[in-house]
Amino acid sequence: MRQEGLMLRVFMVDLSYFFRTKWLVFTLIALNLSDMFVTGLVYSRMMSFEYFRFFVPGVVVAGMFAAALDVGRRVYLGLTQGVTQYYLSLPIDLDAIVLAHILSAGVGGMIYGGVLLAVAMAAVPGLASPSTLVIVPFMFLLSMGLSGIAAVLNLFSGGGDRYWVFAEGMQVAMLGLSTVFYPEQAMQAYLPAFAVEAVTLNPLSQVAGALRGVSPAGFGASSLALMALTSLLLLAVGFVSYRHVFLKVRLLGKVQ
Amino acid sequence: MEYAVESIDLSKAYGSNVALDGLNLKVREGEIIVLLGPNGSGKTTFLQLISTVLKPSGGTAIVMGHDIVGEPLKVRQVATISFQDPRGFWRHKPSHILSFHASMYGVPGQNRRELVERTLKEFDLWDSREKKFMHLSGGQAKRLEVAKLFVHRPRLAIFDEPTTMVDLDGKRTIWDKIKQLREEGSTVIVATNEVREAEYLADRITIFAKGREVVTDSLSNLKDSVRGGDVVDIEFAQPVTRAMVDELSSVRGTAKVSLVAEGRLRVQVNRSEDWLPEVTRRVYSMGVKLSSIKVTEPSLDDVFMQYTGGGGP
Amino acid sequence: MMKAGLGTMASLLAFDLREAFDSPLWVAYFWLFFAFQFAVYGSLMSRLVVSMDHYLFYYGTGLIVLLSFNVASWAGRRFVESAHEGRLRYLLSLPLGRNELFFEQVVLGVAVNLSRVMPPLVFVLWASHLLTAGALLYSVLVLSLTAVGIIGLMVSLSVIAFRSFDMYSAIVAAASALLIRFSTLYYPVSSMTPAYGDVASANPLSYGADLFRAVIGLDVSPLLDPRVALAVMLALCVGTVFMGTFFMSRMVEGVKSS
């Protein structure tokens, strides 16, 4: 059987794991929808601008991020429950296993983010434009890129319980230092210049900005190009990191 | 191709801990070879090396004509391992896990459903087919782990302790299925701690200790190799005399003669099948009548003790 | 006999406490999370909120209650996980009464809660210029009361784990997300729509947060009535402790362990 076919099967199993983890999906839905329709609406009443319209695209990005990052949890479980060793015993190339995980992160993030985007389009009239759909492939690319972050976490946590600390910390830091919750201008007035620079480069800010900038005329090509570039860079990091993780398992029988 | 597996100075070290130390082991095609050894003797490491789950630190092995270092993918296409600890997708049902496994070895989709159903039934997992892997009992998960190899029947089937946690009926089923696999042309390697399993399955047995192969031979040759391993209890129709003891002690192969009762001797001998005719002849020529003779062969435990110097399997 | 049971309970508590404190990385993360949320998220949101002065302090106090809620939830969840992983069976085999086992869980949760929350609490009180011995003492009492209520609730909810550990996780996680958002942790009832305000007013977490704010002397004008809040928190505490002891004495043997 061709390696592409085998990769597809590993991808399917990995992706289905995300949707089979019902407690996680429930949690994400409860978090994201209550963020949109409770936190967003209440804060709108406390602020001088319509925070809801600003925040809802941010929630889409946060949801997509969480779904894409979940591949790290699945790989962590694979390492601790021995599924990784099982994959390594199958007639499939190491690179194909790595690609299957990255692909499943991309599709998982895109599906979950896509559903949230549909909700957002219904809730925020400005988003309900065909131009919004242009961003979906970029969400796919970015989700694959974000899996790179999960891979780095897997690499540095060594398959141990530290993974959960790293994953939570990374999520809080990346969301907190992005324009998901607050506009860039507010940050420019408060945060030091290097932090604002980090916020600008943060891919979550890029995709949130792209969603907020939707107009019937479409998006700025440069913002999409920057997003694609960041995603590809992260994807490459993810590929190398996961490869390293699996090679380490083959060498040591475990990650550390 | 003479050998299914030929390891050449195969070594594996984890830092300063040497798990496998320059192993040169040959597994013949079509045989069931059982690896017997205490915990930490290197059995699992060897199995994971030849299935390319682990990378050797030194040496190599040729598996079905493919080098585990140079052609790991080709090795995995012909050799499959059933792990010691069951490895399944926690949130999937047994049928999904077997179906996935079959698909990875190119079993056509139209055959898979029927094959999976049959395998689940054969391994007594049909009633648990709706349970998720994480809800299976230890024995069920282990049976599923073993069953994976029966959906595609690899040319080299590797089982690491295939019946731990499995009940007696299940053990017998697995053993029979493994034998059937061999009859259908597969070469089988089994690592175990269970002497009974080794006795039931093995064409040849390899004893491991401290990362090295101590001995490889058939079960009967291994038993025969135990010095004084056969125990012969002889009951005479008259009291034992000094002359009778001296006569038996002088027979080639006698290791020790002990008087256990007035008319009974216990003799430890090397090969009872060679020793008995000679003893019968000499006792007859002495005009002594025998009431009964009982021969007890050495157990595999005794074999193991002889070769490893203790620390049971 | 009772004395022997208390001795076993103390030994178990000491063992569990050692285990709980044997994760410096989690503790460091806990405090870093607080610092980041307060200094970055809280400060930035405070610049955007125009409906109240010093929103940062309102947010900071809400964050303290959230941390307390999280640690208490962890204590309850830990109990269910111990059943899932088979440890509970061992605990049930010890010469320890069921109620003592429940109280051990509660004391553990409160002790861990205070040890984790105390540094952020002192910081928030200091930053809000509200740090006094009285404020600190009352806050500790209110946070402990809240923690006991949440632990009792979470342990009682483990009855769901009879059916499925996954279902328990889903319900607890989703309920926690909703409890937090439909509460006054981050925003007062007066800022909510009437419908949301009604939901928040039925949420014990709102009373815990507002009671905490009241005892430290934060501006009480946007808060729920502190006397009602105290009554609600006491009722929650007594109710969930009663439920917890009932559960432990009658049903705990059936908690799913696989």
Q: Can you give a write-up of this model?
A:
The complex is a heterotrimer of chains A (256), B (313) and C (258). In chain A, 82% of the residues lie in helices and 0% in strands. With 256 residues, chain A is mainly alpha-helical. With 313 residues, chain B is α/β, with parallel strands linked by helices. Chain B is built from 11 helices and 15 strands. Chain B has helices at 43-50, 72-78, 94-104, 109-122, 138-147, 168-183, 195-201, 219-224, 242-249, 272-285, 300-308; strands at residues 3-14, 17-23, 26-28, 32-36, 58-63, 66-67, 79-82, 156-160, 187-192, 204-209, 212-217, 230-236, 254-261, 264-269, 290-296. Chain B has a 6-stranded mixed β-sheet, with helices on both faces. In chain B, strands 1, 2, 3, 5 and 6 form a 5-stranded antiparallel β-sheet that branches. In chain B, strands 13-14-12-15 form a 4-stranded antiparallel β-sheet, with helices on one face. In chain B, α3 packs across α4. Chain B is elongated, with a radius of gyration of 24 Å. The relative contact order of chain B is 0.13. Chain C has one domain (2-254). The two termini of chain C are 33 Å apart. In chain C, 48% of the residues are buried. Chains in contact: A-B, A-C.
User: What is the number of helices of chain C?
Assistant: 10
Biggest sheet of chain B: strands, sense, closure?
6 strands, mixed
Largest interface: A-C, 36 and 37 residues
Shape of chain C: globular
Can you count the beta strands of chain B? 15
Structural class of chain C: mainly alpha
Q: Residue-averaged pLDDT of chain B, rounded? A: 91
According to CATH, the homologous superfamily of the largest domain in chain B is P-loop containing nucleotide triphosphate hydrolases
The helix content of chain C, as a percent range, equals over 70%
Gyration radius over CA of chain C = 19 Å
What topology, given as strand order, has the largest sheet of chain B? 7-8-9-4-10-11
Name given to the CATH architecture of the largest domain in chain B = 3-Layer(aba) Sandwich
Short description:
Chain A is mainly alpha-helical. Chain A has helices spanning 3-20, 22-46, 51-81, 83-89, 94-123, 130-133, 135-157, 162-176, 184-188, 193-201, 203-212, 221-252.
